[in-house]
Amino acid sequence: KPLVFSGVQPTGNLHLGNYLGAIRKFVALQENNDCIYCVVDLHALTAQLVHEDMPGQIRSITAAFLASGIDPKSHIVFNQSAVPQHAELAWIFNCVARIGWMNRMTQFKDKAGKDREQASLGLYAYPSLMAADILVYRATHVPVGEDQKQHLELTRDIAMKFNLDFMDHIRRAGQGIDITVGDEPVHAYFPMVEPLIDGPAPRVMSLKDGTKKMSKSDPSDLSRINLMDDAEAISKKIRKAKTDPDALPSETEGLKGRPEADNLVGIFAALADKSKEDVLKDFGGQQFSVFKPALVDLAVEVLSPISAEMRRLMADPAHIDSILRDGGERARARAEKTMNEVRDIIGFVK
Ligand code: TYM
Question: Distance (Å, rounded) from C-alpha 3 to C-alpha 338?
Fold first, then answer.
């Protein structure tokens, strides 16, 4: 079975972008894959070093995974810090990755802000830890939102440089497999990961501005739907969402140049497990005064059972912790197998 890995940071409240761009896809992938889903608590330190309630944040992301339908018995749910092998491999990747590669990361540029000298070294090395998260399991498929695409390209670059630089060592250690990259034969240890960014909502936009990503850092709460919003809040935010005065088109072609309409149709499609084409077959020619109430009903129908279940789960933190502990143990065993091989490949004396 293909191995799927993905992670979500325990910072701020989860919003509809996180749900449609990532978590909803995590759930669907369980059927035909072996899945590992991680609450990336080490990454959370890059945005903000000290967290008021780190345990609560970690548990709330875990609760969101479980409430959305992730099965922690058939798959693995854990928090990153429980598996120190992530940080160990990240160090090695820090020595593989080039400063020039990191300098091209747009997320670093956005998050570091104007005074880059004051950004933490961790924020800079963030994508190297992300590559380690995935490759410490030698996972091949990574469901993420569109904003993570560049990080996954970097993950491939790191894997490829490791494979090429250590090619003889990999063979000598009796590890790896022969693959071809382009026309080049390579004896590879780490796989080339494939991002899974497809679907109708790879980039959910702000409800207030169709050209800005929906994000937890937007100062306006009206710009996003939070996973924990109640029916009233969801309804208010969708009713107030920015639109244009025209009716919906009957073909996706007609959404071009209409970012707000495109965004709402994409959200509807993702929530309904339909394509945007199918949504427009039903709503083409209709005004937003018809479409928005239908979207409110759908969003409430999908999200309210999730937030109710999250609340129920959060009332029993010990239960959540036991799930994380069990997942952590199973993840650690797998990660240690890889690290053991990586130490052999590099030539560390044991
Ligand atoms: P994070 O915690 O910022 O976001 C979690 C997931 O939500 C997706 N996402 C969105 N998708 C669509 N539209 C949006 N507006 C939107 N906002 C967020 C993100 O793309 C992500 O999939 N670096 C990652 C966490 C991470 C990770 C990994 C992911 C760490 N290690 C290894 C995959 C594999 C992040 O900060 O996600």
Answer: 14
Q: Which atom of ligand 1 is nearest to the CA of 214?
A: 15
> Using CA of residue 146, residue 147, residue 150, residue 153, what is the dihedral sign?
negative
In this structure, the residue with its CA closest to atom 36 of ligand 1 is 9
* CB neighbourhood size of 87 (10 A): 15
pTM of the model: 0.97
Quick: pLDDT tens for 36-79: 999 999 999 998 999 999 999 999 999 999 999 999 999 999 99
User: Model confidence at 181, in pLDDT bands (50, 70, 90)?
Assistant: confident
Mutate to test the pocket of ligand 1, among 48, 142, 147 (most ligand atoms within 8 A of CB): 147
Asked whether 215 and 164 are in contact (CB, 8 A), the reply is no
Q: Name the active-site residue from 149, 161, 208, 216.
A: 216
Q: Is 213 a catalytic residue?
A: yes
Instruction: Enter the ipTM.
Output: 0.99
What the chain holds in terms of domains, given with CATH numbers, is: 3-200+317-346 (3.40.50.620), 221-313 (1.10.240.10)
User: Is residue 295 within a helix (H) or strand (E), and if so which, with residue range?
Assistant: helix 288-314
- pLDDT for position 47: 84
Q: Which residues line ligand 1 (CB under 6 A)?
A: 5-9, 17-18, 21-22, 40, 43, 130, 133-134, 142, 144-145, 147-148, 203-204, 213-214
pLDDT, one tens digit per residue, over 94-150 is 999 999 999 999 999 999 999 999 999 999 999 999 999 999 999 999 999 999 999
Statement: residue 12 has pLDDT above 90: no
Beta strand extents in the chain (DSSP E only): 3-8, 34-39, 76-79, 141-143, 177-181, 184-188, 194-196
